[in-house]
Queue: 3 jobs
Job 1
Amino acid sequence: MSQTVLVTGAGGYIGATLVDLLLGAGKRVIGLDRYFFGEELLGDTLQHPSFSLVRKDIRAVDAGDLRGVDVVCDLAALSNDPTGALDETLTYAINHAARVRTAQLAKQAGVKRYMLASSCSVYGSGDGTPLTEESRPQPVSTYARANLQAEIDILPLADSTFTVTALRQATVFGLAKRMRFDLVVNLMTLNAVQKRKIFVTGGGRQWRPIIHVADTANAFLSLLDRAPSEVSGRVFNIGTGEHNYQVLSLAYIVRESLPFPIELEIVPDDSDPRNYHVSFERAERELGFRANKTPGDGAREIYEALKLGRIDTGMRTITVKWYQHIMEAKQLVDRLEIGGRLL
C-alpha cells in the first residue's frame, strides 16, 4: 500500500518541490499550508489524483489532519532571517511551538515517521573549521534559534514506534514553482540578468554551504524508507562538502555561468554575522546522500527561465517583503472596516 505523506509548508519553495517528488514516487500527498504565496503556483499538481490540498495554519493542526498519515514532512515555517526578525514572538509560535505540537499530535495519532526541516543556520558563526552535527550550535538570529529549539524539543519524542529525524539544510538555491529571490545564488542571478551586476554583501568572505532545492527535497524522499535504527532521534546536515563556498566565490561562479559580461560590486559595510563551513560527511557516509546540482547549474536554469518569462520576479518572490505587504494590507483593511464591513 502506498504511503500517505503530510507535507506542511507545501506551498513553499522546498515544499512544492517535495510534493512533486513524492507524487512522482507514487506516494499519496496531503499538502497543508496557508498558501500565502498562492496555491495556483502548484500548477498541474492541484489536479493530481493522489494530491489533496488543505488550506490551514500550522498552529491550527489537529488530530483529524493526521488521521491515516504515515509520514509527516514538517516544512511549515517563517523562512529566513529577515522574515524571522519581523515578529520574534510570531516566529517562535510558528517555527518552534507549532512544530513541536504537530510532532506530538503525529505521535499520538500513530504516525510512524516525522521529519523536521531545520537549517544549517543553527551553526550561526563558526570558527572556520567544518562544523559537524556534534558541533555546538551558535545561532545568531531568531529564525535560527527557533529552529534549534524545535530540534531540542522534538527529537526526544523518538521511540520504538515513532521515528524522528531533523534535517539541517544548507542554503537552498535553484528554480522552483514558488520562486524565491531572497537566497544568495538566486538573487545574484536575478541581479546579473536585470542589472548586469552582482552585489556581494558583507565583504564576501563569509562561508555558506549551499544545496539545490531538488537535492534537498530528495533528501526527505530518501529517508522515507530508512530503517528507524539508522535515522531515528538523529540530526543530519544536508548538503555536500564540495558546495561550501565563500560568498565572493559564489559571485564568481554565477558570473562565469552566464553568457554575458557582469560586474561585481563588493559591499563590505553590509553586516552579515552568519559564517559557517559545514561538514556533510554523516549524510554522505551513513545515508549515501549526495547533492547533484552545482550553483552554476542553478544560475543557468534560472537565467533560461527568466529569458523565457517563465517565472515571477515580483514582490512575492522576496519572502519578507511579501509578508510585510500582507501585514500592511491587513492593517489597512482593519482601519477602513466599519461594523464588520469593508464595502
Note: The two ends are 51 Å apart (CA to CA).
Job 2
Amino acid sequence: MSLVASDLICKPKSKGGLGIKQITAWNTALMGKYVWDISSKADRLRVRWVNHVYIKNATWLEYGNTSTASWS
C-alpha cells in the first residue's frame, strides 16, 4: 500500500487531484455547527437531549464539563 500526501488527493479533479474532501476541515466545521446548535438551543432531538442532560438551566458558556463527559 502506498501512501499519498493528502494535499495531493484533496485537490479538485480539474487540478489533478481526486476531489476528496479534507476530513479535518469538515470535522471542525461540523463541530462548530453542533456547538452553535447547542448554544442557540435548536429544536433537534440530540440538541434537546444535551441541553436537558448536561447543560440544564445554564448557557453553553456557563457549562463546566465533568471528568466523565465525552470530548465532543
Note: The chain has a mean pLDDT of 83.
Job 3
Amino acid sequence: MSVQVLVSQKGPLPISVAFNSPGDLTAVLEVNGSVWTTTANQMIGIQVQLDGVNLGTANIFSNGASTHRAVVPAYFKVPLKYGVQHKLVLTAATSATTSDFNDFFTAVIHY
C-alpha cells in the first residue's frame, strides 16, 4: 500500500493544502491532530473538507478545559481524479474547538 502525506504541520486551524492525485482511484484519507477547548465538557474536533465537500469530523470529547486532546483518527473514502488539483481544508469542527501552535495535524492519503 502506498501513502501520500498531505499535511504534517503545526496549527492553528484552518489548514489548507492543494495536491494532485497519482491516478483515477478511490483512496482513503486519514486525518489526525490535536485541539482543545476553553470550556469543560465539550465535543471538539477537526472538520474535514475535500474539494468543497464536507466529509466529516475527527472528534474527541473533552471533560476538562485548557488541555490539548488528540482527536480520534478519522478515515474517509475519497474518489480522486488524475490531472485535477484537489484541495483539502481542515477547520475547527465546533465553536468550542480551539487550536494553536502547540497542536499538530496530519492528513495522509492511503492508496
Note: The longest strand covers residues 25-35.
